[in-house]
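Worked example

This section walks through a single chain of length 146. The input is the sequence exactly as stored; nothing has been trimmed or padded.
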Amino acid sequence: MSASYMNQEDIKKIIPHREPMLLIDEVKEIVEGQRIVASFFVDPAREIFKGHFPGAPVLPGVYTVECMAQASDILLLSQERYAGTIPYFIGIDKVKFLKKIEPGDTIEIHSEVSVEKREKAIVTCSAVVYNKGEIAATGDVTLAMR
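Given that input, the structure is written out below as tokens.
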């Protein structure tokens, strides 16, 4: 399956995440089993910004990593063999934060399958997060579908 767009309601049909932990607003492109491009609007009203950091708010790195994982979840769970499973985040590697993500930014998350162990239903995806056209973060996320 190749799709050009999914809104948040479409996304909710694929992954089990819900607000306030659903951190993908739309899918701009998906090539089944290969790659995805998704986006997330960093809403200034999010509670996290009251404490991270007062007067100089920035999206916590763990949120950025979770965006990588959720884009990868959509990529994987949109395949028939993983549909309806829960994607457990079991590993992270080679994460680098290169540019701040601030309230009001819209980030774009690109993820692609790099290693798949089908017999164990464990997949590693390489992700790149862009902010204003520049690389903001990179990393590899490993997920187990159960």
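What to look for: Residues 2-145 form a domain with the Thiol Ester Dehydrase; Chain A fold (CATH 3.10.129.10).
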